[in-house]
Amino acid sequence: MLVLLVFTEFCRDEFEAYMIYSTLSRVPFIGRYYGEVLRRFAEVEYNHYMFFKSLSGCGEFRFIRFKVILYLILLILFGVTFIIKLLERSEFKAVVKYRSVNVDDPEVLSRLEGFIKDEEDHERLLIKGIDERKVRYLGSITLGISDSLIELTGIYAGSLGAFLNTLITGLTGLLAGLSASISMAVASYIQARSEGVKNPRIAAIFTFTAYITVAILLSLPYLTLPNLITAFTVMLIIAVTTTAYMTLYTSVINNRKFIKEFIETTALILGVSILLYITGTLVRKFVGIMID
Predict the structure, then answer these.
(1) What is the largest CA-CA distance in the chain?
(2) DSSP string, 111-161
(3) Among 130, 150, 173, residue at a domain's last position
(4) CA distance 47 to 43
(5) What is the rounded CA–CA span in Å between residue 22 and residue 17?
(6) 41: closest CA among 97, 73, 83?
(7) Residue 110 and residue 145 in one domain
(8) How confident is the model over 180-210, as pLDDT tens digits?
(9) How far apart are the C-alpha atoms of 221 and 227, rounded to whole Å?
(10) Are 145 and 283 in the same domain?
(11) Which residue segment(s) compose the domain that 273 sits in?
């Protein structure tokens, strides 16, 4: 009975993989290489599914399409490299599952060994097509985003004790973000040049673009909302959402734990915001100046 349940689980996994691969292979911007590779993978996974179906008698599975739709949404939000790393993870998990099965039937064992080889080949082919340039410059992008989030949320928190006008606050943050993005781009250029691994100009462009994009996003509530507290609250929501997005991306690409990194980064952002809010309030009390 236990073996039957295991084979039913494998049957579901393989059918799910078949649906995901066949759907993604037809997406235009997945690229020619991955379009062809995923189409071949889908055929292999379907054969795996039919084998486990013959052993377990499993039928059609519900809610598979929801996961397929989720992968399509993730592809749109995070791009091809992110999705490929997710698929690579699933292939690795499949290998681990197959290796853990104990059955006495020599034919089944032989087929499982063949399936393990298939999944390992899939892993290798997925990794082969990854755009290493995107991964190589991920550090430059992360540098721009993380610095922008921490510095600008701190500036906006500190401004609560010194500014009354949301428009002035937003413009102040935006100008600070523009100047900081230029300095960060220069720093990224110098760092890349000294390391000799990345193209310094491309690294600088990635850092600048990431920084200024976040700066614009964080300034939008102040430029569009009349109430300072409301604008600050919306700004924090944007900051935390951006943190979650970037942390999820980097955790998948670099095979790290999402929750731990997200909590640490969010705690840093909120901690800096609280500290600078207190600082801004103290400065206002000692100086006695509020900017309308």
Answers:
(1) 84
(2) HHHHHHHHHHHHHHHHHHTS-HHHHHTHHHHHHHHHHHHHHHHHHHHHHTT
(3) 130
(4) 6
(5) 8
(6) 83
(7) no
(8) 999 989 988 888 888 776 788 988 998 999 9
(9) 9
(10) yes
(11) 133-287
